[in-house]
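Problem 3 from the worked examples.
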Amino acid sequence: MEIHELLTDFRTSGNKTFYIDYFLQNQKEIKDLVSIIVNEEKYPYPEYASWLLIHIQKANPSLVKPYQNQLSDVLLKSKNQSVLRNCCSVVQLMGKTDYREGELLLRFVDFVKSNENKVALQVHSLYCLIEYVKQYPELKEELKTLANLTVNERTAAYKVAVRNFLEAIRKI
């Protein structure tokens, strides 16, 4: 089945398990999902492709790991909030990489700072920043301040993420 047709069927069926299993069994087609995301194809393909990557990553991280740099590039250039959220989630699950490290750090900070971003993108960005604090403890105080900057005006999900972020970096 052609990848776009597969994503269209996924969109209408809602049978997440079937499609995740499909890609786990047809691993060579994961590159097609990544290509759709990287090439910023029209809605809904990048949104559904990136969502599937989260769940493929959770099921078998080694299948998505080869695409970490490409997904990092998407984080640096995309403006699509759904794709950014999903790619941020995948990158968070993979762990920090040295690839474009400084640019990604600044991008995660920007995601957290901007109230125009969706909460889930801000939350995943906070979790990505934990790895930076582990490697660069001198960032701890600045990132604590950033996380707490507008916490009182944010959603419950953001408040929980800040609490988890602060707990994770407390011992660093």
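Problem 4, a separate protein:
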Amino acid sequence: MSITTLNHIINNFDLQARLYGKMAELARVQLENLKDRSYSACIDEVNRILAERKAIMIELIPLNEENKKLQRDVRGELRIESFSIKNLKGKIGEDELTRLKVAINVVQKFLKAIDQADRESEAIMRRNASGKAAGKTATSQQAAKAYIQAKQQGKLN
């Protein structure tokens, strides 16, 4: 098997980790804004954060696609059903396996942090969008709707 291909996969995960790290930080800041400030006071900041997160997602899409292709290549070369640590063990060097585990774990850590912050943010925004907040503006409704749509698009990509 080509060590170069495996190194490309590891490097790709490292790039993804950097981007997911930025996104996790933005998700944390977004949640803090929603918790600490009135909804109408933070709407511009939330919209700015959502735009930054969307830009990061746009960067991540080709990285994910490239990684999937590289993983398919490795699966074919090694004749394994799926690209997993379990299936790669004994088929690649221990150094590469360790580097791959670390890279995947970092990505997973950031994805969990993003998911948790997004769940909390979504709950706050849904409460605001549900009409519990008296006198809410059309702008806050639009932001809640845009956030939910952005979150759903992120799940699809």
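Solution to problem 4. The helical segments are 3-36, 39-78, 85-88, 94-129, 138-156. The CA atoms of residues 47 and 143 lie 7 Å apart.
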